From TrEMBL:
Annotated catalysed reactions: Endonucleolytic cleavage at apurinic or apyrimidinic sites to products with a 5'-phosphate
Class of the enzyme per the UniProt entry, highest EC level: hydrolase
GO biological process: DNA repair
Pfam families: Endonuclease_5 (PF04493)
HAMAP family membership: Endonuclease_5 (MF_00801)
Entries under InterPro entries matching the protein: Endonuclease-V (IPR007581)
Record site feature (Interaction with target DNA), residues: Y84
Name the UniProt record assigns to this protein: Endonuclease V
Subcellular location: Cytoplasm
Cofactor: Mg(2+)
Gene3D superfamilies: archaeoglobus fulgidus dsm 4304 superfamily
Length: 232
DNA sequence: GCGACAG
DNA sequence: ATCTTGTCGC
């Protein structure tokens, strides 16, 4: 476990944060195919909070993309750097996530985020932000449609429908389990939407959510408990 | 102007 | 995100 250091100049206001998004968005790379699903490594990142004690814990879990076995994992703990504001989630999560990624003993490969990438009011959600800051290919897999709209995908696993911001397809509602509500997939950085969906399906052999996020979720909660546990 | 809104 | 027990179903 490492300690999070909030970057100098981290935004303090919503206005500053939105300006950062508008500035970094130009660095997004959206014309790369991304890594092929089922090969190399895939890393899940997630964050848990104790607002009461002002503690944030992040986890990064590296899986072998073919076997989905855990290859490596790391956690980071620190203070909460930004309040939760819809559209500005990245400023709350990223410092801890970067610290956890830095603590990994091996390259992460594709990073799977719990949240959105291009499906964002300014087309720069958590997954895109993390991708630009790290240079890594990223995708976002969220549990809710946020403010976007979509028709329900067909009932079978693999069915999908466009996630729309007006006329623009910003992501896809993707059914990962028969008859279970879909997840919402969007491109983060250096990936394509169809590739992001293919990765998501490869990561969901048994549950609605990707193995990456399930592992990272469990690990960051554990790290938060440990960090806030009363001292002996 | 008011409410809704990833985690 | 987080607060929270049992319960229905494969």
């Amino acid at each position: 476990m490492t300690t999070v250091r909030i970057p100098a100049g981290w935004p303090a206001t919503e206005e500053e944060a939105r300006a950062v998004q508008d500035g970094l968005r130009a660095r997004l790379v959206l014309d790369e195919p991304g890594p092929p699903p089922g090969t190399g490594r895939v890393t899940g990142v997630d964050v848990a909070y104790d607002d009461e004690r002002d503690v944030v814990a992040a986890a990064a879990v590296v899986l072998d993309a073919a076997s989905l076995e855990v290859v490596a994992e790391a956690t980071a703990v620190g203070r909460i750097p930004f309040p939760y504001v819809p559209g500005l989630l990245a400023f709350r999560e990223i410092p801890a996530v970067l610290a956890a990624l830095d603590a990994l003993p091996c390259p992460p490969g594709l990073v799977v985020c719990d949240g959105y990438g291009l499906a964002h009011p300014r087309r720069f959600g958590l997954a895109s932000h993390l991708g630009v800051l790290t240079g890594l290919p990223t995708i976002g897999v969220a549990k809710n449609p946020f403010t976007f709209t979509c028709d329900p995908p067909g009932p079978g696993r693999g069915a999908s429908s466009p996630l729309l911001a007006g006329e623009e397809e910003v992501g896809r509602a993707l059914r990962t389990r028969d008859g279970v509500k879909p997840v919402y997939v969007s491109v983060g950085h250096r990936t394509t939407l169809s590739g992001a969906c293919a990765h998501t399906l490869a990561l969901t052999p048994a549950y609605r959510l990707p193995e990456t996020t399930r592992r990272a979720d469990a690990l960051c909660r554990r790290a938060l408990r440990t960090a806030t546990a009363p001292r002996a």
